[in-house]
Amino acid sequence: MEAKFFRFLRVVGVGFKARTESAGRQLFLKLGYSHEVELAVPPAVRVFCFKPNLICCTGIDKERVHQFAGAVRNCKPPECYKGKGILYLEEVVKLKPGKQGKQSK
């Protein structure tokens, strides 16, 4: 199988990790929940983890690759206050300012 389409995902957050098992057929994500999130990879897609925080979805069908990458990102979408979550590699999250403390006069 020759991979033609790629989608890279970045896992951002303290203690957030990703790993693959059984030749890229299963993806395990540690995302700060009480349990590990387990995703079964569809047959037309392969998944590789180059680092614990970098996921590569690849395959010959663009739609399926992007669909699976979207499903992975949906497990923990990036939040706008700290920027933690699963982001596409080229994605930039615009951070919002937090609460403003009371101003002392």
UniProtKB/TrEMBL annotation:
<comment type="similarity">
    <text>Belongs to the universal ribosomal protein uL6 family.</text>
</comment>
<dbReference type="InterPro" id="IPR000702">
    <property type="entry name" value="Ribosomal_uL6-like"/>
</dbReference>
<dbReference type="Pfam" id="PF00347">
    <property type="entry name" value="Ribosomal_L6"/>
</dbReference>
<protein>
    <submittedName>
        <fullName>50S ribosomal protein L6</fullName>
    </submittedName>
</protein>
<dbReference type="GO" id="GO:1990904">
    <property type="term" value="C:ribonucleoprotein complex"/>
</dbReference>
<dbReference type="InterPro" id="IPR019906">
    <property type="entry name" value="Ribosomal_uL6_bac-type"/>
</dbReference>
<keyword id="KW-0687">Ribonucleoprotein</keyword>
<feature type="domain" description="Large ribosomal subunit protein uL6 alpha-beta">
    <location>
        <begin position="12"/>
        <end position="88"/>
    </location>
</feature>
<keyword id="KW-0689">Ribosomal protein</keyword>
<dbReference type="GO" id="GO:0003735">
    <property type="term" value="F:structural constituent of ribosome"/>
</dbReference>
<dbReference type="GO" id="GO:0006412">
    <property type="term" value="P:translation"/>
</dbReference>
<dbReference type="InterPro" id="IPR036789">
    <property type="entry name" value="Ribosomal_uL6-like_a/b-dom_sf"/>
</dbReference>
<dbReference type="InterPro" id="IPR002358">
    <property type="entry name" value="Ribosomal_uL6_CS"/>
</dbReference>
<dbReference type="InterPro" id="IPR020040">
    <property type="entry name" value="Ribosomal_uL6_a/b-dom"/>
</dbReference>
<dbReference type="GO" id="GO:0005840">
    <property type="term" value="C:ribosome"/>
</dbReference>
<dbReference type="GO" id="GO:0019843">
    <property type="term" value="F:rRNA binding"/>
</dbReference>
